[in-house]
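Re-run with default settings, no changes from the original entry. Doing this only to confirm the output is reproducible before filing.
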Amino acid sequence: MRMSDLQTKDIVNTKDGKRLGRISDLIVGENGEIEYLVVEPSKLLKRYTGFNSETNIKFSQIVKFGTDVILVDLIK
């Protein structure tokens, strides 16, 4: 899977069903493995919720890669 494929998928939290945004960047460790997905909220989310900051999601928190979404397990 390519980074560009990941960037088209919505990120959804399985705990509350909320859409978090889309991947804007990846953080790769010294060993070459992906450590975090950097998720930026969509413009619509920013406008209506005031949620402006990006979220770092540990790769271990990913539950499933779907065709249109990536499900993550976040406790907030």
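The chain has one domain: 3-72. The first strand starts at residue 10 and ends at 13.
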